[in-house]
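Lecture notes, unit on protein representations.

Consider one protein chain, 178 amino acids long.
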Amino acid sequence: MKKLLTVFVIFVYFVPISLILTVYIIAKQTSQNSLMLGAFAIPIIFMIAVCILIILNIIKAIISIVQSRCLSFRTVMVYKLCLIPFYIINFIFWSIASMVFHIAIIVWPLIPFVIIYTYFTIFGTSIHIIAKLFNLKQNKVITTKQFVLHCILQFIFTFDVIDSIYLAIRQKKFEHVS
């Protein structure tokens, strides 16, 4: 499961790198032709690859629940912390791209999809924490209220990282009880 998360994190970073190169190519292009939209093919391919990796992570997390072999909170927290620069770069890139007029015309219609994609990337790591929480709930280590609260926090930007840090700190207590 760690290999899949590692590949996921790497591919997540390929998206902004390819987008920055694409915007640079479009900005340097002097003629107006159909290559402008075609330049976005590589970032879109990376986005699709990330979505596939997220789906695979969801499947792995479900399998880990059945086999009771979930990743530790600390392991997932490290991956979440590794993704923080991606979210910062992603926000800055799309903010700048939407302000540059000749690029903004292309970017503005994409913003809802970018927001959905960025939000979807949270699931790649949060699903493993939810799987671990589910196991803890099944073993009666945590209550249903705690389970629901932590699950909700795992789907909110910034709070997902704070919650994963909290759970990683409390991990020894959870292991001691179970």
